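Now for our specimen.

. . .
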Amino acid sequence: MTQPKTWSDRFESALHPAIARFNASIGFDIQLIEYDITGSIAHAKMLAHTGIISKEEAMQLVTGLEQIRIEYQEGHFNPGIEAEDVHFAVERRLTELVGDVGKKLHTARSRNDQVGTDIRLYLRDQITEIRQQLREYQGVLLRHAEKHVETLIPGYTHLQRAQPLSLAHHLLAYFQMAQRDWERLGEVYKRTNISPLGSGALAGTTFPIDRHFTASELEFGGVYANSLDGVSDRDFAIEFLCASSLIMVHLSRLSEELILWASQEFSFITLKDNCSTGSSIMPQKKNPDIPELVRGKTGRVFGHLQALLTIMKGLPLAYNKDLQEDKEGIFDSVKTVQGSLEAMTILLREGLEFRTERLSAAVEEDFSNATDVADYLAAKGVPFREAYNLVGKVVKTSLAAGKLLKDLTLEEWQELHPAFEEDIYQAIAPKQVVAARNSYGGTGFEQVRNAIESAKTQLL
């Protein structure tokens, strides 16, 4: 079989079938069809607005394009690789529907500025959707935080017990990460929301087009000031993949903690049956599949970012076929981020419970209050570094004796330093340790409650 020619009479033969398959993008850029139709409608209206075609011709084009939209939505329009890409597929079908006037649609336009417009329209919608998902995810984190202000959890540095924390404070750290993700995508949206339509293949066009008209029709915030830049820029796509990678980093970090917390060694959370799976041979197991998959899928988005950076790093101006490779990575990243956010939100909302009794016990069984002993002495006039060294010795001797700091008698404390008094026991009680850290942004209960109110305001 040979493929029909889609080019001018400059070519005497069609592509080799294998090359046609290799060259075609219709298998994946069909996802852009409704955006391609929307952009084409705006272009047709502009052609009539500037007198390049008649209003009657523009009406025929718009009617035909909307018919193609309906056919696609109803599953009746399924072009194959003979169309090569979504743009040719739409134009060919349009000509079948409205006749030769369909051939006028491509006046003053190139596939280069056309695909640039399509991908921006697509990504604009996906950014809006992901930002909404981030808000839902943040809302679930916030609801947990409201319930667990005075629930304590061990805090870690280097994955070693460090200081006890409010569980709400811990969860609000992820809320703030998601807030930056939300804000970052808002910035990416602004740079995505610029119209390249009218840039032509690379140099603009001789026709008296009105680029601001089409930008307004498509609700773009502006137009590219340079036609070369308009057709070759993919900075916005790279920025989107950067922002997506950071979203996945943050989801993956929480996933790692949930995996640890669900283990028997930690037992900080219980996974519910609706969000976990079992083993095919070990009947007692309950596996944290959702966070494990999120952690694993993170690498996909990282890979797409690296791939697009590699594509762009050596491209001369203007458009090059290499840019066809941007779409699959963008499409897969959108799918991965949206799916991961949905799954993690469901898991947090209805798939786990915090084991508050186990968490309370956990903060009673370590030396994470040692810093507070040093702070206690420093507050009584002992130089902090001296106090720090003294407490290090206390921990060492307590470990040797199989004791915790709370188990030492007042006499033992006073043998270490005469500044110790009866109030040392209150000072090192876990809830007091947490409550005392009342500096702005700290884990003190008062600060956490303030942070929750601020978070509510951010969501609004």
